[in-house]
Amino acid sequence: MNAFKKLEIVEFYLIENDPKKKSFWGTLHVYFPDLDLDLRGIWAGHTAKNGWKVNLPVRKALDPESGKEVRFSIVSFCNKENQKALEKIILNESMEIMKEKRKGAPIMINEKKKFNKGPKSFKPDFQKPKSSFSKMPLNAFVSMGK
Fold it and tell me: Per-residue confidence at 130, pLDDT binned at 50, 70, 90?
């Protein structure tokens, strides 16, 4: 884990700043010079309920068997202690930058829109739309351009 101790916080991109909920979230761009590793998409922020938190990038997908949404880590260690240690190092280094970014930021509330994914066996019906052009003679299209 010594290679991860030296890092640079390139930027914190604020996504949500909600004073009513006492929370703010965004993504971090972190560079590890010893490894020449550029890591983006690290979710970081603070809520009144959970405190400070950092999550390494994940990808969401639907589990084909259960139909539920699951998260897969894009970057992960086999040893979970190393994973937690890296998250802690990133959090400690980025906390001051996140606080500074929040000071002058406008109120930004991220409204998550709910959408219906449909039942598991849902298959869209792709029927050819009926249009008024289908009844026109073929030479009508040629004369329309003149």
Answer: low
